[in-house]
Amino acid sequence: MHNKLKSIHYHIMLLPAMIFLVIFTIKPLLGSVLAFKKLNPVKGIWGSEWVGLYNFKVIFDIPNIDRILYNTVFIAVMKIIAQLIIPLAFALILNEVRKLWFKRFVQTVVYLPYFLSWVILAGIFRDIFAMDGVINKISGTIFGTEPVMFLGSNLVFPFLMVGTETWKNFGFNAIIYLAALTNISPNLYEACDIDGGNRWKQLLHITMPGIKITIVLLATLSLQSVLNAGFEQILNFYNPLVYESGDILDTYIYRMGLQNNQFEMATALGLVKSAVGFILILIAQKLAGKFAGYRIF
Amino acid sequence: MLTKYNKKVNIPNIIIYIILLLIVFTSLFPVINTIAISFSNSSKASAGVVTIYPIGFNLDSYKKILQETMFFNAFWISVKRVVLVTAMSFIITVLAAYPLSKEKKEFRSRDIYMWILVFTMMFGPGLIPSFLNIKDLHLLGSLWALVLPNLVGQFLIILVVNFFRSLPKELDDSSSIDGAGPWQKLFKIYLPLAIPILATITLFIIVGQWNAFFDGLIYMNKTSQYPLQTYIQQMVITIDPLKFLAQGGDISKIGATVSNRTLNAAKLVVTMVPVLVIYPYLQKYFVKGIMLGSVKE
Amino acid sequence: MKKYFCKVVAITMSLALILAAGCGIKDEPAATTTPVTSLASEAQPTVTAEKADTYAKMAEMVAFTTGGMLPAEPKYPEGESNENNDILTWVKDNMNIDIKYEWTASDQNNAYDSKLNLLIASNEIPDFLSIGGPNAAQMLKKLIDADMIQDLTKVYEDYASPTFKGMHENSGNVALKSVTFDGKLMAIPSLSDVETAAAVMWYRQDMLDKAGLQAPKNVDDVINIVKVLNEKGITKNAVLPARADMELFSGDTATFDWLFSAYNTYPGMWIEGKDGSVVYGSIQPEVKTALAKAQEIYKAGIIPSDFALWDGNKAVELVSSNKIGIFQGAWWSTAWPIQDSMKNDATANWKATLLQSADGNYYQRGYAASKGFLVIKKGVEHPEAIMKLINVYEDCALKKNEWYNALTTNENAKYKNTGGTLFPALPGAKYLDEISRRYNAIMDVVNGKVKKEDADAETAALAANVLLEKEKPMADIANWATAVSWTEGAAAFAKVKMIQKMPAFDGTTDTLTKSKAILTDLEKQTFLKIIMGKVSIDEFDKFVEQWKKLGGETVTQEINALKKK
């Protein structure tokens, strides 16, 4: 009885979120059937004819689709990993700083690049990595190397994409970790200190376990981007010389331009990306349950 | 951490400071570059000679901005949407997170709601269905089209859920004994303890809305309704004379379309000012959780 | 977990369905949903009996909706906007036509095209629309396939003004043919000059003088100039600006057009082959020779070693910073980027010329005469009103309408500094050789052969610019830019007999749409690799084979079949 009464309150609390979800997400989500149709604008999504998996087939019939898929997953996974580790490392380092003003200053500065668009940043990075750019100049003076065309090299390009994006986002991504770190009780550190634990030990035994949950949560949620290798960024950086290693699903489809079935294809691709991400998250949920004993959702 | 360590000047500390300063400089460089360009002479800027200090210092671009009503128009629209979304989404998020943080035994439908949340987080509606949905709701061109679809941030809700879950059960139980209902518990106990995470999600909502540009592009009917980032995206960054011709432009007028790098840079700087101010302001809420040592053991 | 998942899905679906039923997801109505024309029967001049008056005011007020394209800061006078200004008022009062803008989109970043694309797919287009740009042909095809626009054959025949028709006939009706499908004219196309496509070599006369060099006549001269200027220290490590962000060839700034044209090759274009059929320019054997030369140039360091990473802005930095003595631009390059070069160094003396090929001819590429067109939605009544509007606009563009000149181009005109298209973006028709005609007209006035009062408004205004510049050189940089774009830029091709190769086909076919990405990728990658010396020049032959196999052959056949119709 008690439960039932309380439950009503819970339902009420969830109501606003559900209402907006239904109106603005779930209802248009039904329009995803577009992926299985051939759009006739006049007949609309619902009146257009069914074509089954045709739109999906078009995607998989793209020549070099395996290369493109490989690039997409490779870059995306590298980004997921880098963007889990680097912000964490940064947060941990920053956590060691005691001067509050310095800490706040650093925090504010490093989160700024997140707000610059790739259109601007790509121009700047292109200058930095140009044949006559800073990197080549320094490397030439110190190591005596020949200038390397970084942005034209299939070897380097994917890593440049991962590196620059991590650089752009780490300050912002670290915010969650920083917030989680403040949640660890100072008493725990005190206790460890009394027990003779040095900084490193404190890190291992107090800090890390303290934010373990945050890490697992962020890692899981980041799985949804496994097929999103960063369209806007790559579009601003790539060129035909690096299609081999840098061309991803989204950029290829962009180059395909206006197609007769472009919206149907985009919807199909969206479904595929979502499905893959969803499955991965489900797997992660199961694994986290088994090994960390933790329920993410 | 503890003040005891302040007294020692140890090597690790110095290394940490050096690393952080390096990081700060690399993060700052593009920002400083943009600021320098905004204060430079525009021909020098287009000659690519400006690096970290202005060349041909002048305030022309900033003076020009004051006359550009469209820019401020867009700025103001963004401010409005950020305020609306932040206020509404904050409430919705918190209200939804609380019941979801309860165990199954307390709230039987919890799992169902959670999976709806996760599912809709993964599967978003496509472009055409979203557009048609907004159109059917007669929201095209209205500020609400930029607000209402963005009120349910599934990722943020999950963050708060996990936070609530990390709070000790004893808090809940002892207040139940005192006869507190769900609403009282939420507002009097959980929320006050959640300040850091609430500050985090507030920041995320603000930043997300401030940066959003695509919805402005597709849902707004007039360029005068564009929010800030959409407007910024439409600034002339690169000259495309053939495009200009294709739009019926008189080629002799192309001089007027010149990409004004300093003006663009100035607009970017102005765009960054609010985010520059918001984070330090919110940082004071990222204080150590009022985690009562007594309970958290 | 699975149980719950299914439950969730089931509940979600039912929830959604219930709400959907309530909110009524329905088939998009086939008929137009926008309020359109007033219908009262009017006494229209009978079409068959006598020629319709192509400028007549409409008997009753008719209203149309359209979409507009605006720059970020249009700068309309206080209280006015693109929806509320004297021009639209004139149209309303004098023609009984009321234009309403359903929406506007930015002119940058493909915003207009994206919006249009979305609206087409959603069946939400306004009464009439202007479409232009690289995607225009595909959008037109989409509209026709979806049966969303109307047949304009009769409207054009009966209501297009003699002026407008005359312009099109002058050009052999090329533009009209490009928008005619199955014998039906589905759009009203614009017609603009094609000389702007010419690749003009701009060079620093002052630097050449210091080095004792002559103006470049051909490709080898250009190479020599870059070399010698460097050797003599007049420039330091200068290169010929080049880029690869757009096409390698596109009649713009710092592309390879100067080279390809000089070898009478036209990559990227569909052209008339030796046997009269339509062939693709990039696979012609002469292209191999041109590429070999480009390879040579790259090896010699005449073009930047990383040009493949350069974009327009970076390429022109060399010009603006006065680090180089020669580059490829267009006749209007004084507006951009040379203007910045002048601001940074007022002593720079830029001149322009065209290059000759080995046989002494001035070959240049051309481009499609039509840059865009107007379509009218199916079911819209009184399309002839739109045609009349186009007629009026045509006269305005030709500067024949004094009321329009007073508002837009005359001294102290109200909308002189207003950006964007002031008229509801209608197609205009100009001479294909407009630029050289204009040049000759200007010079006639400048040389006193024709009196200023006798010349037409635009010529007179430009002649005034030129004369002012002669009198007070560099007094006003904007004036300098305008004047020199004519005295040097346009002069470059007006003074010689330029042979422009026009595209033989400019639309799209099914296979072309499908294979565009594959073929373009192959071409661009191959060309870049050859030029950069990563593969030998013989790779070109392999490329030709591959191109044909990957769909190029099919496309060629499709195009030729279309042309036969």
Q: Could you walk me through the main structural features you see in this protein, from its secondary elements to its overall organization?
A:
The complex is a heterotrimer of chains A (297), B (297) and C (565). Chain A has 297 residues and is mainly alpha-helical. Chain A is 71% helix and 1% strand. In chain A, strands 1-2 form a two-stranded antiparallel ribbon. The longest helix of chain A is centred in the N-terminal third of the chain and has 31 residues. In chain A, 39% of the residues are buried. Chain B is mainly alpha-helical and 297 residues long. In chain B, 65% of the residues lie in helices and 0% in strands. Chain B contains 15 helices and no strands. The two termini of chain B are 18 Å apart. Chain C starts with a helix and ends with a helix. Chain C has 20 helices and 14 strands. With 565 residues, chain C is mostly helical. Chain C is 44% helix and 11% strand. The longest helix of chain C is centred in the last third of the chain and has 26 residues. Chain C has three domains: 170 residues, D-Maltodextrin-Binding Protein, domain 2 (3-Layer(aba) Sandwich); 224 residues, D-Maltodextrin-Binding Protein, domain 2 (3-Layer(aba) Sandwich); 66 residues, no CATH class. Chains in contact: A-B, A-C, B-C. At the A-C interface, helix 1, helix 2, helix 6, helix 13 and helix 14 of A face helix 1, helix 3, helix 4 and helix 19 of C.
